[in-house]
Amino acid sequence: MPLWQLLVLALVQGVTEFLPISSSAHLILIPQVAGAADQGLLIDVALHVGTLGAVVLFFRRDVGAAARGTALALRGRFDAPDARLAVALALATLPVVAAGLVLTLADLGAALRSVEVIGWATILFALVLWWADRWGGQARTLRDWGLREAVVLGLWQAVALIPGTSRSGACMTGARLMGFGRVEAARIATLMSIPTIIASGALLVAEIAATGAWGALGPAAFAAVLAFVAALGALAVMMRILDRIGFGPFVLYRLAMGAGLLGWAYL
After folding, report:
1. DSSP-H helix ranges across the chain
2. Alpha carbon 253 to chain centroid distance?
3. What's the pLDDT score for residue 67?
4. Whose CB among 69, 121, 140, 236 lies 3.0–4.6 Å from 86's, allowing a Cys bridge?
């Protein structure tokens, strides 16, 4: 793989993974626009590992609470706040794992990766995000995130398997509709990415093990480091923008991107 493609993929994955603009859409489009070959499973795993590391570092207090909660839940102590957080994260992951398995078994992944699908999903869910941000409340925080809210946001996350929807954007939309503040919605959506990235990464590793495609470990490690740095910076910028401005810049970007993709697809 050319060095420029590795750099672009790592930076794009790191920057877009947690912004509500769909990282999967960008990664799908890069080879199509550049006329380059697909990056392969090993690079995909490395990119996800890099962004996962950024989340763990940026939200280390919440991640520590979830880790302690997991230990408490395993001992049957579900009354503790940390245990409820851990259980909520687990419940929110189940719908997307189930939906991902269905798509894989039905071999529908390729059909959803077209430019037309990405363009329409980018525009539609940008409008839904704008509406949710305009009318959603601001009072609820992570402490108010219970099991019912976790299941509902898990369904929103499963919908985001459609490229162009944006996993983080869908989760933030659902959280805003429930009355969570902008920063808290982003916080919940980002925490939800941890078990999701781990689950998707495990599936990719299983596919790599089955095919024996373990080559290019050096470039993969390089990609992981770049994605980590880019994701860490993107998280810091996103939290500042949401606190001061809101989702407006991301909605406008999505509308422009979607319009451009539909123009490319149909014209």
Report:
1. 3-16, 23-34, 41-58, 60-74, 81-106, 115-135, 147-159, 167-177, 182-211, 217-244, 248-266
2. 17
3. 95
4. 69
